[in-house]
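USER:
Working in pairs, take the chain set out below, taking as long as you need, and write a paragraph about the fold.
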Amino acid sequence: MPASTLPLNDGTQVPWIAFGTGSALYAKDAEQAVTVAIKNGFTHIDGAQMYRNEATLGTGIAASGKPRSELYITTKLAELQPGATPGSALEQSLKKIGVDYVDLYLVHSPRQHAGKLKEVWKGMEEAKRAGLTKSIGVSNFTGDNLNDILEVATIPPAVNQVEVHPHVWKALGPTLAVHKEHNIVTSSYGGLSPLFRGKGGPLDPVVEQIRARLESTRGSPVCDGQVLNKWLKQKGVLVVTTSSKAERIREYLDTENVPDLTVEEIDLIDATGGELHKRFFPGNWPPEEPSNL
């Protein structure tokens, strides 16, 4: 069964969960991982120029045998080389991936285009108008970064992909408010970091308590990752996740079949996560004042 979708502000739809080719696959051959992900049910593949593996992402797609029309492909703009534009950079990506267009093209980081965000965004709009991508968006943008490009945008960003989990949800408030105002979908990376990188934190007993309740309600196994992915899904977040294990991949996709969290359970995750402000990818976000958290 294909993954459910989220509506974007440009009239298209995006599968709510994506297989990411960064982190563990950064600068590595992604072919086998992508093929395994697609063969086990993923249709949304999230890549980036900065991951330095677009070519093997493409061979993985080809090896899967899945028709292009049944896949949703995302890539991201890296720092522009002299004389390059977002469109010309995307044309290079398309050649590497072996496709005629991508479904979603994101500005990977505002820090790579300091002082030029407005100009870069106009280039993103041109890439969309040229048919190189169906949708455009951003990544690691604060609310201020978004407001900067929205001053000149004729096409608003459809997505902003940022680090999202319960330990940063409260701090993301100002950015999420801009998302809400402009119907920008929040996409997450690092959503399971509290489980894998932050073991022993305040969320552990809460996630276990909810996992046990869901498993009892469902009558079949539920894992910790499904609890937090369900939390993200019920927040309307587009989840980007990854794993080298086919079993884990199937668990992530099976999140849709896990019973919903109750309002009380969502509130409990919010409150407990908010007790500890922790970014697992701090280099992707401006320094934060403790008084603002």
In short: The mean pLDDT is 96. Residues 203-218 form the longest helix (16 residues). The first strand starts at residue 5 and ends at 7. The beta strands are 5-7, 13-15, 17-20, 44-46, 72-77, 102-107, 133-139, 159-163, 185-189, 238-241.
